[in-house]
Amino acid sequence: MARAIMLQGTGSDVGKTVLVAGLCRLAANRGLTVRPFKPQNMSNNAAVADDGGEIGRAQWLQSLAARTPSSVHMNPVLLKPQSENGSQIIVQGRVFGQAKGRDYQRLKPELLGAVLESFEKVAAGADLVIVEGAGSPAEINLRAGDIANMGFATRAGVPVVLVGDIDRGGVIASLVGTHAILDDGDRAMIAGYIINKFRGDVSLFEDGIRAIEGFTGWPCFGVVPWLSGAARLPAEDSVVLERLARRGAGALKIAVPVLPRIANFDDLDPLRAEPDVELVFVRSGERIPGDASLVVLPGSKSTISDLADFRAEGWDRDLQAHVRRGGRVIGICGGYQMLGCMVHDPLGIEGGTLETPGLGLLDVETEMAPEKTVRNSQAHSTEYDDAPLAGYQIHLGITRGPDCDRPSAIIDGAPGGALSANGRIMGTYLHGLFGSDAYRARLLQSFGLSGEQRNYRESVEQALDEIAEELERHLDPRWLAGLFG
Predict the structure, then answer these.
(1) Cα angle 75, 124, 76; round to 5
(2) Of 43, 44, 202, 224, whose Cβ has the fewest other Cβ atoms within 10 Å?
(3) Which of 270, 403, 212, 217 is nearest to 279 (CA)?
(4) 404-405-409-411 Cα dihedral, nearest 10 degrees
(5) Angle between helices 303-312 and 315-324 (to 10 degrees)
């Protein structure tokens, strides 16, 4: 059986995902066969694994860091929050059902078998498995039937390293408090802790380390600084959106309305990395800026509900004004569906609203259907000199209409998406198109920018290597030696 370690946090968003990715890259750089694993994830940022089926985008990134093919077994339970229907439950890459919070708590013990089965598959043939927890083990009200943190660790016999985020404050209390409220069995699983996101002179925290050890007896495995490379990695979940501030003025302003059920917004990361682009995330209560040249409607986990919220914000009027000024619009997945004339949901898949008018910018209509399209795709653009595209599709619904006769791309050998007659409105089901360097360069050139072709994937790889190097410098070398064997 492979060696394994599990990183759990004193809370959400303490940096576990990046630490797991960095450790995976560090182990891979040392020649180990390493694989990531997360028993349960909650995110609408999903990816299509190499063996088919959905996993959290973070586990896809961690598999990239590990230089190993991604698998549905790396994230056997994925919860995708919806509207009135609670969360869609994905088990081993496939839709298992839907449940609201209380119902899901009763369901978790049934899912433990799938989690343990997937862990065995991931561990088979590996030297090391690095496991990521979810939330915090201190949420003892959720301990019964837990599969995300200590419930998994105790059943699988995986030792735990606790991660505390010093940047948010209260890290000593969060670590000591976690020690205090865990029961003896769970507490015994913790081998030590890591302080994450430290800024400044680490020697100033030496007394804090001694205090934590005095209260808990746990050793410190390192104090990790704020990792600048993390900003160049794909965003994991909507918590990140709350911290994305408007960057300094760029030559091209692109506006992105942020709706409550936004999904797969990491599609935008390659644009955000472009030095001549100002990416503006438009939040509730704000207007779509009148000087934006392009508006991107990203994916949504619930198209009909997000359409209602789009109108409630007055963004439909802003978008119409943007188009009248000659502005351009790109809709991806749920955003594509919103751009059409109607969205039909005769089976009530998204809730009680059986149909709703779309924004009317593309002459297409969408009908929701229970069969979900989940696949990685190869494509080429019909707009920009057949620029190659590579991405993935995760969507419910079929979109048809006259504007589909002008496809925006040829996807897996067939016409896909739609273009308006004037070419200024585009819709597609292909996630990841902005990550295709040639397409992104042509898009920027169409707005008058130089459009120098940059290798976005290479920048992600470089960021992972930088993070791995930082972890090697700041984590206890004795602990790393024991972990890597």
Answers:
(1) 15
(2) 202
(3) 270
(4) 80
(5) 80
How far apart (Å, rounded) are the C-alpha atoms in residues 406 and 420? Answer: 8
Are 305 and 349 within 8 A, CB to CB? no
Model confidence at 351, in pLDDT bands (50, 70, 90)?
Answer: confident
Report DSSP letters for 242-293, one per residue: GG-PPPSP-SEEEEEE--TTEE-GGGGHHHHT-TTEEEEEE-TTPPPPTT-S
Q: Which residues contact 478 (CB under 8 A, 6 or more apart)?
A: none
Residues whose CB falls within 8 Å of the CB of residue 210, separated by 6 or more in sequence, listed in order = none
Question: Annotated catalytic, 431?
Answer: yes
pLDDT of residue 449 exceeding 80:
yes
Neighbours of 321 (CB within 10 A): 13
The DSSP bridge partners found for residue 330 are: 296, 426
DSSP letter (8 states) at residue 435: G
Q: Helices 456-474 and 57-65 meet at what angle, rounded to 10?
A: 70
- Among residues 73, 179, 322, 431, the one annotated as catalytic is 431
Residue 63 CA to residue 432 CA, distance in Å, equals 17
Cα 331 to chain centroid distance, Å, stands at 19
Write the pLDDT tens digit of every residue in 324-350.
Answer: 999 999 999 999 999 999 999 999 888
Question: How far is CA 346 from its chain centroid?
Answer: 30
* Nearest alpha-carbon partner for 93 in 31, 51, 138, 124: 51
Residues 6 or more apart from 420 whose CB is under 8 A from it? 361, 362, 363, 403, 406, 426
Catalytic residue among 333, 395, 404, 474: 333
Enclosing H/E stretch for 78: strand 77-81
